[in-house]
Predict the 3D structure of the following.
Amino acid sequence: MDQIEVRIVRLEPLRVAASYGFGAGPEELAWQQIIKFYQESGLDQDGAQHRFFGFNNPSPSAGSPNYGYEQWVTVAADTAASGEIKMKNFPGGLYAVTRTTLRTITEDWHKLFLWREASHYLAANHQWLEECLTPPLDAAITEDMQLDLYIPIAE
């Protein structure tokens, strides 16, 4: 197994605005919705550091090209929902995290899963996450997009 660099992170509770896409390529739809909200609500001008997380919802299944993708941006407690954007409170949790690019995301998810299986950590039930470190705010999604992959763990 190829080695990957893994760090253990306790993700604190987050308030997020959430968008949703469904189809053969739902990430782009979810990104378009969350970026529009991010810009129209002034989050891009508020001086705060916002984080972008996403995950399959539901995951792809055999025999169908369709799946869902949920995209989040962190927001202040008083941020209001708008249109198709919903507000959610995420409880956080303990994670094993590795860095990747969109180009190698599938193989790196697999490596992270195998790392967890070989480690002393147990599988946990909180949400698997992908944190986008280079969000496509003014450009298209590319294979060079950098992400941190968060796999839930317990001790």
Notes: The chain is about 20% helix and 35% strand. The mean pLDDT is 94.
